[in-house]
Every structure is written in C-alpha cells, then in structure tokens.
Amino acid sequence: MNLNPFWSMSANPSRKQRSDNEDQSGHGEQRASPARLSFGKKQLPPIPKNAVPITKPASTGTPVQSANGTHASYGPFYLEYSLLAEFTLVIKQKLPGIYVQPSYKSALMWFGVIFIRHGLYQDGVFKFTVYIPDNYPDGESPKLVFDIPVFHPLVDPVSGELDVRRAFTKWRRNHNHIWQVLMYARTVFYKINTTEPLNPEAAVLYEKDVQLFKSKVVDSVKLCNSHLFDQPKIDDPYAISFSPWNPAVHEEAKERMFTYKRRPEDHHKGTQVSGLSWVKPGSTQPFSKEDNPPQS
C-alpha cells in the first residue's frame, strides 16, 4: 500500500507502489527509493489453481480447446510457473511510475496503475487491467485496458484498450515479457505515435491542432483523476483502489517513512536511499523531501 498525507492507494496490504525513476524521454526527476516506500518483505500473491481454465491432455491428439477458442500448449503447472516468473521480472525491473498487482481470483488478470509525472499527460493517474491469454506464453500478446478511456491516439475511445499489438506484432516466448508491455504503456504517454490510430480524432488533433489536443488531454486527465476514489469495477480483493488520507490508518506508516535510515548493506555502494515522496493536497502532483539535504 502506498501511503501519503493526502490520499493512498491500496490493494493487497503486502504490495507497494513503485517510486519514479527517470522517464523514457531521459529527463531526470526527483525519486524516492523503493525501499523507502515499503515495509516488510515482498511476497508474491498466491496463484489460485482455479485460475487456469484449460489443461493439456495426457494422451496425444488434438489439444483441449478453451472457451475462447484458443488451445493450450502447456499444462496448468507450466502456466502458473510462467506467470509467477513474469511477475518476479516485473518486480526486478522496478518500472518507473508503474504499480501492478495480480488478481486474487485469476492469475490471468493483473491490475495496475500508471503515474505520469510530466509531459502532455502530466499528473495523470491511469488505472488499467492486463488480460493474459490462457495459452500464455504462446499465442497473442496480453491486452491492456484502461478503466477509463484516455484521450490518446493509441487508446480506443470506447473500450479503453491500448494498441499493444503494434509493439508486439508476434508474441515470442522467452523473448517478450509482460514487463515490456507495461513499459510500453507508459512510454506512449511521453512519445506520441499517430500512425494507424485507434482514436483518429486524437491523432488528427495532435497533427493539426496541438493546442486543442492539449486541452482535450487536460480534460481527460482530470476525468480519470476524478474517478480515482471510485470502487474497482471488478470485485477482487487485489483490485487497486484509492482512499483519502486517514491519520488513524496511515499516520504510523508515514512516520516510518520519515524515520527510515540508510541500510548498512548499502554503505559500501555509496547508494543514496534517503528521501520521501508524497502528494500535494488537492492534487496528484508529487514532491519529495530528503532526509539529509545537501549543505549550502
């Protein structure tokens, strides 16, 4: 759970929001160490056995066909292992401005949120769901659908689905990974692509009337942020939800952030891990405070 003095995001209490690193365009920004925003050890959520809708038959012959028309290439054990490995990769990548949480009910569905810190979509907080094919890691690429359609050339204005296939025309096992899909979803907000858009209006405005495009983007960001406190659309205990700052719940965690000290194992690395990040009241604009600011 990510905690700050004005609102908080929660799903599984053992989960943490990732802090921001540098964005894809290469611009530096203030960041907080991931350890500074977390408490306790990372624990991967259990993958329910009933999350796998298909199995591989023991005898040779035609594979069992799943409800959505795809075929299983591997049994449930391999599928569970693959998804667990994928989530471990997501954690290791420390994706900037991205938080993701596998569903409790199905390993084939992940909940996420992207924080955009600057650029045209600055202050945007976009919740999304990743849908993974039941024959993963074969077949098509995972789908990424925003809870509220974002005004963007590559986002379907009705369904909210991001055009992932343009970046992953053919999903290759052991080469493509879900963390790359998440990173791509963040990149599109910093590098606008108008080729073969899912939202033609957004593409035309970006090319012909960038000021009107910016105006619609601001409205879109405000709309998404105005629904942050809405209940999740999917009934799942790991679905991401936001709540206003509650001292009775969050004050202790904030104090632990303030009193966090540099870890002994980091001394020899010269790694700067002190600092704090939270959100200004009445907005989603982040700002930071270092525990040991440089002397003037």
UniProtKB/TrEMBL annotation:
Instruction: Locate the compositionally biased regions of type Polar residues.
Output: 1-14, 57-66
Q: Which InterPro entries match?
A: Ub_conjugating_enzyme, UBC, UBQ-conjugating_enzyme/RWD
In Swiss-Prot or TrEMBL terms, this protein is called UBC core domain-containing protein
Main subcellular localization, coarse class? Answer: membrane
Keywords of this protein's UniProt record, alphabetized? Answer: Apoptosis, Cell membrane, Cytoplasm, Membrane, Protein transport, Transport
UniProt organism field: Amphiprion ocellaris (Clown anemonefish)
- Statement: the UniProt record of this protein carries the keyword Protein transport: yes
Q: Example GO biological process term? A: protein transport
Q: Which residue numbers delimit the UBC core domain? A: 78-226
Bias (Basic and acidic residues) ranges: 17-30
- Membrane topology type, per the record? Peripheral membrane protein
The record's GO CC annotations read: cytoplasm; plasma membrane
Q: Which CDD domains match?
A: UEV_AKTIP
* Record has Mitochondrion as a keyword: no
Q: Which Gene3D superfamilies match?
A: Ubiquitin Conjugating Enzyme
Quote the subcellular location field of this record: Cell membrane; Cytoplasm
**PANTHER family associated with the record:** UBIQUITIN-CONJUGATING ENZYME E2 (PTHR24067)
Q: Where is this region: Disordered?
A: 1-66, 261-296
Q: Which domain of life is it from?
A: Eukaryota
Region forming the signal peptide: none
